[in-house]
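Lecture notes, part 5. Sequence design as translation. It can be helpful to think of inverse folding as translation between two languages: the language of shapes and the language of residues. The source text, in structure tokens, appears below.
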């Protein structure tokens, strides 16, 4: 168990979302993550499912997609090692906005919303650091989506 926890700790140290935490805070946080392994093509979570956790990719790639009817999938982004996904579930109790599918064989670390909230309640100072990083991640993704939408609208004026 010690080696597994050290592995989790080392992965978390390299992630931007946890970069402001000291070793003690990271150690406590690392105990809350669970390792999950998915084979290529396996669904990690479905679009519309109630989200209750955030994941960190430790190996492999994850495809985030939306479905456009049966058997039709539109990939939105391919995430890689070190990327975080499902993070919206930590701040809102709503259905997942997209599906997550193992693009390759993938290993993730998952933290449940309840463990995350418990951690923040026990360590407010470090919890605030994580929440601010999470807000920056979400803001960046929203800004990127906004730019794509603007480009699409501009292109559609010429059609």
């Amino acid at each position: 168990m010690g080696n597994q926890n050290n592995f989790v700790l080392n992965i978390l140290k390299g992630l931007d979302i946890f970069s402001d935490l000291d070793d003690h805070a990271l150690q406590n946080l690392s105990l809350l993550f669970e390792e999950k392994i998915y084979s290529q093509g396996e669904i990690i979570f479905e679009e519309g499912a109630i989200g209750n956790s955030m994941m960190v990719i430790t190996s492999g790639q994850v495809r985030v997609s939306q479905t456009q009817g049966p058997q039709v999938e539109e990939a939105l982004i391919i995430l890689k090692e070190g990327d975080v996904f499902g993070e919206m579930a930590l701040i809102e109790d709503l259905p997942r906005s997209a599906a997550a599918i193992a693009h390759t064989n993938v290993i993730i670390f998952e933290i449940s919303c309840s463990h995350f909230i418990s951690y923040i309640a026990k360590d407010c100072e470090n919890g605030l650091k994580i929440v601010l990083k999470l807000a920056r991640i979400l803001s960046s993704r929203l800004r990127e989506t906004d730019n794509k939408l603007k480009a699409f609208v501009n292109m559609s004026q010429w059609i």
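The translated text above is only one of many valid answers, since several sequences can fold into similar shapes. The radius of gyration is 17 Å.
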